[in-house]
Structures are given as C-alpha cells and as structure tokens.
Specification:
Strand order of the largest sheet: 1-2-3-4
Largest sheet: 4 strands, antiparallel
CATH topology of one domain: Pantoate--beta-alanine Ligase, Chain: A,domain 2
CATH superfamily of one domain: GSPII I/J protein-like
Shape: rod-shaped
Low-confidence stretches: none
Number of helices: 2
Radius of gyration: 37 Å
CATH architecture of one domain: 2-Layer Sandwich
Length: 163
C-alpha cells in the first residue's frame, strides 16, 4: 500500500543489535530479515483460531437476541391484527344495533386469515346489554377459538336507541 508521497512503509522487524547498517550482512542476517518480513504480512494459525472463537462466542448472544426480537414482533403483529378485527366487529354490531337490538351472539366466526371471533352478550335491562368480543388466531387450525388463542377481548355497553 502506497502513501500519498509514494512511500511504501516497510514492516517493522527486530534485528540483532550487533548488526551494523553499513556492513555486508551475513546469510543468517538476510534469512532473519526474510523470516521477519514474512511474519509481518499475515496471521498465524493460533491467532486465527482465537479470533474465530471470540467471534463465535460473541455471535451466540446476538443471534439469541435477534431470534427473541423476531418472536416478539410476530406476537405484537398478531395482537395488533386481533385488536383491529375486534374493533371492526364491534363497530359492525354497534351500527346494526341502531335498528336491530336482537341477539348478536356468535361462536367461532371466521374473520379471515385464520382469525376467529366469539361474541357474547349479557342483558342488563330491556334497553341495555353488555357485548363482549374475543378475537384471536386459530393457531391449532381446529376451527375453534380456545382460551389460550384469544389475543384481545373488548367489552362495551350498547343501549337501545329506538323505543
């Protein structure tokens, strides 16, 4: 590698102290310089093995963290999708209840993309009822929404608007 001035730095090597720069070097000194120059050009096998081991040790926790972050991202995505679907179902029920205050109970209603919905109601009075909506992804693909698959549960009160 050349610097801007055209100077190429030579490798730094240890030379015996009894060698003078203006004397003719013996074959032992020349061979020492050659060996030293070769050593400065690369890494030895133990250095490569130790560096690889250190990189491997550092990579294991990083890969574990990335895996956990990916799992957390999938869980958050499922919960967000469930919340959006539950809110949409609640909006449908509220809009329908303006003119039709009948029973809105549903079990394992398909919302698409293997998301299911359970809707239950509790009558508080003749003009008021509590609606509970549970949404989750059907992970086991059995067509039923079990308690461990429920991601979001919304509950609201709906009043009869027309008497």
């Amino acid at each position: 590698m050349k610097n801007k001035g055209g100077f190429t730095p030579a490798p730094i090597c240890i030379v015996p102290a009894n060698m003078e720069s203006n004397t003719i070097a013996s074959s032992d000194a020349i061979s020492l310089r050659c060996r030293c120059a070769n050593r400065c050009e690369g890494f030895t096998l133990p250095e490569v093995v130790v560096a690889s081991a250190l990189l491997l040790i550092a990579m294991v926790p990083i890969l574990k963290a990335l895996t956990q972050a990916n799992l957390d991202s999938v869980i958050i995505e499922r919960k967000t999708q469930s919340l959006c679907l539950a809110q949409g179902k609640l909006n449908q029920i509220e809009a329908k209840s303006i003119y039709d205050f009948n029973d809105v109970t549903e079990t394992n209603a398909d919302l698409g993309n293997s998301y299911l919905c359970n809707v239950s109601q509790t009558v508080v009075s003749s003009n008021l009822k509590t609606i509970t909506i549970s949404v989750g992804q059907d992970i086991d693909r059995h067509g039923t929404l079990t308690a461990d698959e429920v991601e979001v549960t919304l509950q609201t009160l709906i009043a009869k608007r027309w008497l």
